[in-house]
């Protein structure tokens, strides 16, 4: 069954080891002195159920960089989506908050139009409709050949170090130049009569023709347990649906990576053109010269908004596409993949901010790869050097308010004063960010857990306890 693997928000009330803690209790807890923090954090981390896992923690003053607590802060950890902090810093520093990504339509010849993508991760059907309207306004009613130019990004569309169960899901979708709807599609399975296979319905009906379905599912009797698994066969576009839904159950929704992103975009663009009265005789993939007349174009929202969406939702495709945008800063370096070039630009940019290239290992921009290695010390350093950027800080989820932290710390002393990036993979939980402590100085922290044998929710509860301790600090 597909399980979301990076930066997933879980709706939690604050629960510590099975004990419900009310808002009143958490907001009236006594203040603690900085000298007491070490023992208090150790008490949480040293619980017997955490004995088999690795904890990396660094808590520092944001202004003075005084260390209040450190545990294996120099050691490498798999960061999961905390890697997006490095991507955010590099992209924002290099490209600027107002950078936009343009998608264009060029005229390559009589009746031949070419749509050129440059990796806009936010492109939706609404933008394709705008392109179609612009073409209609120019008097175009027939297109002999519609070409999709997907050549802006070179190299692999899926990182070779990503795990198979990730790349079959929407959060591991391929990253190419012409992205539509984040290269994902939605599949719903619903109960029919008892004993019948589950009914399959695609949110995008055209997607049905792209898959071979092996439906071994079943509609069970009323109130029977529900267990549906949707798996993609490694051989290609074969979906295997197993398990059951009770006859009175709600539909089960699965988000999948599309089979062919370019074909996906061409189908949708052809539909948008048809809605404007423009017929398309033939579609294909190809390249061409962008010196030809540009007939239509749309631009993404500014980079500041794209990064905010990326971090609030911990969106992997946004991270990978925006990472690749860095390659535009290295003209003439086309012999390597766009991702490889961009990672070099990222290293160069972070080095200018004081982050040594040898102090971390990144093979992607999202943190979905288990080959990514970062220490709490590096994450804290990135947060410190980017603290003066209001745009950078605004991209982060806020406790009890937004993004992947919307349902954490609600009604506690942390609500509204903690902004941080989450990260989750099997065996990995991460949290790094800022705390504006009311009766103390602002803090920066990074907490990374690897090799965990506990549910992610249990680790998050412990992390939440640690962060609540920070909100209660005061000078003694």
Describe the structure.
Helices cover 27% and strands 23% of the residues. It is α/β, with parallel strands linked by helices. The protein has two domains: 15-96 and 305-471, Beta-lactamase (3-Layer(aba) Sandwich); 101-300, D-tyrosyl-trna(Tyr) Deacylase, Chain: A, CATH 3.50.80. The strands form six sheets. It has a five-stranded antiparallel β-sheet, with helices on both faces. A five-stranded mixed β-sheet has the order 17-8-6-5-18, with helices on one face. Strands 11, 12, 13 and 14 form a four-stranded mixed β-sheet that branches. α3 runs antiparallel to α7, α4 (125-137) packs across α6 (261-275) and α7 packs antiparallel against α8. The chain is globular, with a radius of gyration of 24 Å. The model is unreliable at 1-26 (pLDDT under 50).
Name its key features.
single chain; 476 residues; alpha/beta; Beta-lactamase; D-tyrosyl-trna(Tyr) Deacylase, Chain: A; five-stranded antiparallel β-sheet; five-stranded mixed β-sheet; 12 helices; disordered N terminus
